[in-house]
């Protein structure tokens, strides 16, 4: 098994009779106060938004309380010398379920902590002090053991689920989005047409379906929210739909007549304006996809900075595990603002493209080049020590200085770069490596630019 | 702040003088035993493979021990009435760092548990019992509070990182893999050519570079391991490279002469065989990509089952939150094996395609259709109650029965389906919904097939 019962210290240090007495005491307290303890635990649950909006009161009472009761009982009867693997398996199972039903581990930890405090309080005031104290330590050790097993399974589940969710989101983006865009635009227009017809069909007309219940409304709630995760335009569309369903449609419905001076004309115009608004927002949403989907910077074809934590974290770990060196270059175009200001953006773009090309020519297929900022590149040189990294950096610096860069209009521009180089020194946090390269770059800038400085 | 100090029970129930005394006692014990406690904590770390292969002894001693010392001290001086947010922020920061440097939360929990046990032991034996017990409860509450804050930040970090990693993996797959395949095949052949030349260049030849140090070797370690994550072919390639570098090359190197009866011929043949093996495995690796990359079942264009946890989990949560209904249909082709056996696989494929088409015709764009198994589909009908779901199921059943399905050779085949329908009843675990639909399907099969049964 994974988690060692080393943390069940009491079984190593405590004589059997004292331990047995403590288990007995604990079992009695847990049995006597079971209902209150379970109640306390779920108070914590329902207090947290992450859990309460999801777990209704009835779910808690009907389904979770009995299982928590059983869990409490199992704590008092637990004996690491008998069936430890069974106990461990049950805790892991619970951790898995929590990750599936999205009960955050910190809420479970908080609930468990409350139970420990409560029981501790009772034990201290009702029992002999030494006996009570042993029972407190016992309960703590067993609950902590359960918590670490649960957390481990929970974290594994959360990470797996996060991967699947991201894969699904990217999958929906990779689908033929132009088809989806057109079919949802059509679904929206279909609803608005049906709405107008139904309104002017008079009292005999069929009752109007709310837009949130339409094909478009369903798609919006169940699909768009995944595809366009995090976009603020989602909120605007949601608000427009709510306004239609909760204000405009009821107002129109309650009119005595659709014609005449109190007629529906202004309301219908309003309705149409809201539908138009949704149509524009929808187009914008799909438009925004193409801009953000790629993993590469469109100008220089270097890797998007968003992958940096994943890749550098992995490379630092590989370096640590295998004892291989790892170097990072931070490369910044000198006087870039000036080039942009005096020669125009096309010249600036040409400079960045040329620098990226020179970096690519001087690195291997396993090295990784990121567009790190406006005029900054970060390069991870795998299995490369400081000496070799400085050599690469100097080649890049010399090549940029020597290059005659052609702008789109045929004119030429020259550029230089400053480079900071750092190597992995054993610190497990990749952020330290980036910071070190950044500081070296800063010094290279300060000392006159067009130079390479090692951290 | 997020985590309520409600779990710091002692501050609510304990009179100030008793609490102050307990804090004093605790501070003294933590200061006296700091070195031993830190040592105990890192014993746990280094015992676990997940942490030890990453954290070398020197990293632990130089960097982590001082920060753990400071953390221990902060536990004794912590007072929720003063600067609780500062304390909380520090714990969250630590959780973030742990997620970045991949120290699993369960190991931190285990270490913390050990510290609690150890200190508890000391307090029980060296101090007045009531006073010792209060100090134990105090330490437990403060450590548990720290742990829940740390876990929360850790889990957030892990989930974010898992998403980025998956996005990067999928991004590398989405690149032009045929270019990558060819260039790495070329890199491999380049190494093997250089190897042969260098061998027969005799004693004057340049020293041979190990294959693991070649462009191909670097690519394999730093790129292929991401692109082909989890493939067992990676291990085979790794083993072949190891054999080359650790056995074949040293044997060839140590030969007195490359010619004559003790010559290199058999060893070189062996080397060539290993390179060929790697070449084939590499081709297979890239081949395997196209099969697994898609999110849809290639035969029926329904969604891959791998997205099920993400989508159903989300739909169950939406249903729970908004009080909207949710239905699941489990649809299974009747006597499918028989169709395959008597009419051939083309007929079976045609039946599955036809069923998928009929399902698509009878569902809306927000509903989700999965290929669940060989001849089984799972359909999530969003915002649909049992009555409406049964209607859809019966339409699908009738349409399949009525369809005359054309096989590739022009012949016709008929098929029926059995369908189990279940609706979300409030259980937060989507697996219960699937099980319920599955059991209903089982009954539909048992009761004679070609029918719809509600759970």
TrEMBL record, chains A, B:
It comes from the Bacteria. Its EC number is 2.7.7.65. Coiled coil: none annotated. One of its GO terms (biological process) is cell adhesion involved in single-species biofilm formation. InterPro entries: Diguanylate_Cyclase, DosC_2nd, GGDEF_dom, Globin-like_sf, Globin-sensor_dom, Globin/Proto, Nucleotide_cyclase, Rev_trsase/Diguanyl_cyclase. GO terms for cellular component: plasma membrane. Gene3D superfamilies: 3.30.70.270, Globins. It catalyses: 2 GTP = 3',3'-c-di-GMP + 2 diphosphate. Transmembrane segments: none annotated. Residues 324-455 form the GGDEF domain. It is an enzyme of class 2 (transferase). One of its GO terms (molecular function) is oxygen binding. Pfam families: DosC_2nd, GGDEF, Protoglobin. PANTHER family: DIGUANYLATE CYCLASE DGCM-RELATED, REGULATORY COMPONENTS OF SENSORY TRANSDUCTION SYSTEM. This is Diguanylate cyclase DosC. It comes from Mycoplana dimorpha.
């Amino acid at each position: 098994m994974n988690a060692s019962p080393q943390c069940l210290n009491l079984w190593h240090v405590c004589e059997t009779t004292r331990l047995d007495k403590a288990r007995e005491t604990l079992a009695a307290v847990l049995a006597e106060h079971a209902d209150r303890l379970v109640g306390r635990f779920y108070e914590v649950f329902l207090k947290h938004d992450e859990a309460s909006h999801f777990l209704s009161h009835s779910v808690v009472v009907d389904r979770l309380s009995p299982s928590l009761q059983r869990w409490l009982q199992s704590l008092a009867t637990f004996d690491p010398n008998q069936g430890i693997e069974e106990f461990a398996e049950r805790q892991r199972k619970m951790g898995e379920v929590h990750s599936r039903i999205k009960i955050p581990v910190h809420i479970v930890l908080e609930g468990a902590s409350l139970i420990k405090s409560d029981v501790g309080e009772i034990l201290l005031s009702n029992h002999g002090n030494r006996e009570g104290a042993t029972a407190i330590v016992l309960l703590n050790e067993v609950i902590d053991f359960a918590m670490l097993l649960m957390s481990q399974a929970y974290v594994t589940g959360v990470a797996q689920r996060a991967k699947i969710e991201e894969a699904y989101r990217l999958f929906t983006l990779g689908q033929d989005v132009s088809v989806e865009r057109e079919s949802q635009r059509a679904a929206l227009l279909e609803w608005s047409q049906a709405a107008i017809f139904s309104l002017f069909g008079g009292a005999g007309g069929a009752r109007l379906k709310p837009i949130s219940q339409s094909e478009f409304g369903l798609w919006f709630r169940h699909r768009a929210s995944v595809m366009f995760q995090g976009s603020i335009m989602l909120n605007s569309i949601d608000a427009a739909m709510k306004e239609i369903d909760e204000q405009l449609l009821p107002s129109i419905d309650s009119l005595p007549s659709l014609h005449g001076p109190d007629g529906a004309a202004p309301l219908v115009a309003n309705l149409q304006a809201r539908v138009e608004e949704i149509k524009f927002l929808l187009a914008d949403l799909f438009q925004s996809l193409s801009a953000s989907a790629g993993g590469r910077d469109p100008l220089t074809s270097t890797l998007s900075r968003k992958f940096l934590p994943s890749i550098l974290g992995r490379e630092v770990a590989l370096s640590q595990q295998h004892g291989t060196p790892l170097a990072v270059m931070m490369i910044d175009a000198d006087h870039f603002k000036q080039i942009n200001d005096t020669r125009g953006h096309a010249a600036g773009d040409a400079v960045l493209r040329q620098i990226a090309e020179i970096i690519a020519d001087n690195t291997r297929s396993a090295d990784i080049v990121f567009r790190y900022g406006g005029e900054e590149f970060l390069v991870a040189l795998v299995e490369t020590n400081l000496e070799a990294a400085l050599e690469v950096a100097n080649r890049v610096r010399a090549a940029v200085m020597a290059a005659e860069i052609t702008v789109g209009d045929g004119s030429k521009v020259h550029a230089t770069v400053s480079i900071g180089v750092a190597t992995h020194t054993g610190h497990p946090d990749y952020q330290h490596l980036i910071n070190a390269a950044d500081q070296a770059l800063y010094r290279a800038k300060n000392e006159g630019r067009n130079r390479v400085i090692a951290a």
